[in-house]
Design goal:
Blueprint lengths: L9 H20 L1 H23 L5 H43 L2
Length: about 100
Amino acid sequence: MSDERQEVSQEQFEVIKAVLGADAETFKRTKVGQYIYGRIANEEEQLIEELIAADPEDAKLQRELRNEIYKRRTLPIFIEEAIQSGHAAQRNLEQMESSQQDY
């Protein structure tokens, strides 16, 4: 596999982002996606309860629990960002297509 970078046009880049966003949106609705989102929510809820019950003087435990909560929140954020980026790319593609038709 080559490590050479290939140049892509702005339109190709927008297509890639639009497809990625659509894939992320589809994943979120699948049974696997729903399962993962559910697990994340349950684990986050459990970690928040542990954080509330933790000794406020135990800075190390507080950091560890907060970090674990943060990690659980990251995947859904990445998926949502991919979806939003895909929607924006789709709008950009529509504008590009409209601009090309004007000529």
